[in-house]
Amino acid sequence: MRVITGSARGRRLKELEGMETRPTTDRVKEGLFNILQFDIEGRRVLDLFAGTGQLGIECLSRGAASAVFVDRRGDAVKLIRENLACTDLQNRAQVVTGDSMEYLRRLQETFDLVFLDPPYETGLLEKALAALTEFDILNPHGIIVAEHPANRLPEPVQAPYRLHRTYRYGKIGLTVFRRGGNEDSEEQRP
Question: Which of 22, 83, 95, 139 lies at a 20 to 30 A Cα distance from 72?
Fold first, then answer.
């Protein structure tokens, strides 16, 4: 597992042992960053269920302003910190140990880009999507990217969020949701 491009291009990232964490495959990761290539620079990123941290690290390498990594597992948090250190990106990163859903409930800041890649069979993807849209933590025109089994699409989201597109990579699906801007509220002003 390597960083694809940017300031940390080619750096090898460490992976967690065992089957509890399933890193995004290289094929899916390359497709994802082709989709997002113009939506990263200068953005604030949230990598929920971060695992190895590879998605947020890729964003930092490509010029994201900052990234927050959240994972409940102590070994994952330790590994994320090691991966940030080996890529020299730790100065723009914050690593949080704890439950992702609890983190969302307490959150007081907003983001431009959120990655959701929880373990597939836990139901956490649906809960996280509902919480993100309910708490409305994305800036106008923000993006949520959800990784899921290709045969099981995420539930629809409520305005100002909308489904942008779903991409298939074999058995893996990536669904991109976009938050609208503030156009509707501005049009209604006298």
Answer: 139
